[in-house]
Amino acid sequence: MTEKPNDLDTVPTQDGLILEEPIEKARHPFMEAWDMFRRNHAALVALMILVLIILGAVFGPSLYGRDPFDMVWAPFTPPGQNTDFLFGTDYLGRDLLAMIISGARVSIIIGLAAAFVSVFIGVTIGALAGYYRGWVEEVLMRFTEFFRVLPTLLFSMVIVALFGASLPMITFAIGIVSGTAVARITRAEFLRIRELEYVTASRASGARDLKLIFSVILPNALPPIIVQSALMVGSAILFEAGLSFLGLTDPNVVSWGQIIGSNRTYFLDASYTVTLPGVAIFVTILCISLVGDGLNDALNPKLRSR
Hints:
This protein is mainly α. 69% of the residues lie in helices and 3% in strands. A hairpin with a 5-residue loop joins strand 1 and strand 2 (18-22).
């Protein structure tokens, strides 16, 4: 007597016959999300471009091998005039391609670090406010609204001007003014999830508040937080470019915003010195936004169930 395959199920019929039907195996949620993400062709192409940008930021300075601060040729050499300097030179005669490659690393690191700071602050405030509610929610959300009503760029400028234009301070300034959106999303998700049955069952079984917050509710509130975190990276890169354009940056490091800020005076004479790093910022933020839209589709359970 042979055994039935594991992927078949027996179904009785009216005639007493037994039919075998294949059992649909449950797929891992990650694979379902990846399949949904792949259907968004714009997001998939954007992800590939973003990976290339990150690889260039990591390995580009070593492979290109030219110091971005070296004055290597005549100032304002336009792109294509000298084959050794494909993107030309800036107002000091520095290789613009070397500056853009090195600036990619700094801009992306600031974007990731500032997004981490904003997500950490926002998730902490939103989780506590959404879980405890009452006076805790009132105090924390009023604190969040204080930062929300202030002009974010102006407030970050004040922080950098008061405490110095170092990279850690720039990262902290961008992170603290950008955490309000994450806090509001986290609070809304906690208010929704805390009333669900499995949370009530965990509470009835004696689970402590910290376990309920971080082990039960937060993992199920992550999808919109992840999407917002991805978008925060692009916003942080744009914020850093704005601060650098205004001169509130560390002059000893090269970033895309710093390149634009240092060459802005010569825009009419050598527009490429501002345009090329501006294009790098535009393409990177556009790719991050498209990837964020793809993540939103992939992590949305209603869309995955279609």
